[in-house]
Amino acid sequence: MTENTIQTENHSGTLVIRLNIPGRRNPLTSALVGELREALQKAQDEPEIHAIVLTGTGPAFSAGADLQEFSRIGARTPAELYDDAYDAADLFRLGTQLRKPLIGAINGAAFGGGMGLVAMCHWAVSADTARFGTTELRVGLVPFVILPLIRRAIGEKNALKLMILAEPITAEEACQMGLVQKVVPETQVLDQALAWAKTVGGYSPFAVKMGLDAFFTTQDWDLEASFAYLARLRILSFLSDDLKEGAQAFVEKRVPVWRGQ
Question: Taking a C-beta distance cutoff of 8 angstroms, is the pair 154, 126 a contact?
Answer without folding.
Answer: no
